[in-house]
Amino acid sequence: MTNWSSIKAIAFDLDGTLIDSVPDLAAATNATLQQMDLASVTTAQVRSWVGNGAKVLMQRALAHVQPEMTKSAEFDVLVEQTMPSFMQQYGLHLEKHSELYPNVLATLSHLKLAGYQMAVVTNKPYEFTIPLLNSFGLSHFFDIVLGGDSLEKMKPDPMPLNHLLSQWQLASSQLLMVGDSKNDILAAKSAKVAAIGLTYGYNYGEHISLSSPQAVCDDFAQIGDLLLN
User: Fold this and answer.
1) 225: annotated binding-site residue?
2) pLDDT value at residue 124
3) What are 159-197's pLDDT values in tens digits?
4) 180 labelled binding-site residue
5) Are residues 178 and 88 in the same domain?
6) 218 assigned to active site
7) Which family does it belong to (predicted)?
8) What pTM value is reported for the model?
């Protein structure tokens, strides 16, 4: 059984955990596809494709609208050629339709007041992570922000969480990972830290409990209930 009282620091995923950013990711994806005279995709499809970084999102979108291309040697080249356009479009759409999930602001405030060190560990490119946090008034909660390109490897690799352990000089029992995806839980398991899985985010249509985190929460406020009560 997890000893929640030993937790001193918390790493939060971003997309699907703090912010529902899929509407803007879908808008940027479709704007990119439109520039290429390709068919559009649905928001629901994009919701099932996010979590492994921007490049993988575009790989999945292009594979969906041009499945015949995936077996050709040109597919990887096409993805690389598409990325500058997607990055530009996402920058334009970054905060137009995204929303904070319920109880995020209040819960982060309570955790900050209780003295927890907090970080964001996301696979989103760093250049988009900071403006998104700023736009929702979240930046001041976090001592460290790691994007998908901040280190050599990203989740599900444990490198970002091991980086936090090193930076904060913590034992693995003192760090908690909070996320909505199996990538978050796999990273936590590899780093030997506890994990809370959220049921409302993006996890490829798979219930987060199947990844066996130490706790499963349906509402962000339940994180505070576990740690502060």
Assistant:
1) no
2) 93
3) 999 999 999 999 999 999 999 999 999 999 999 999 999
4) yes
5) no
6) no
7) Belongs to the HAD-like hydrolase superfamily. CbbY/CbbZ/Gph/YieH family.
8) 0.91
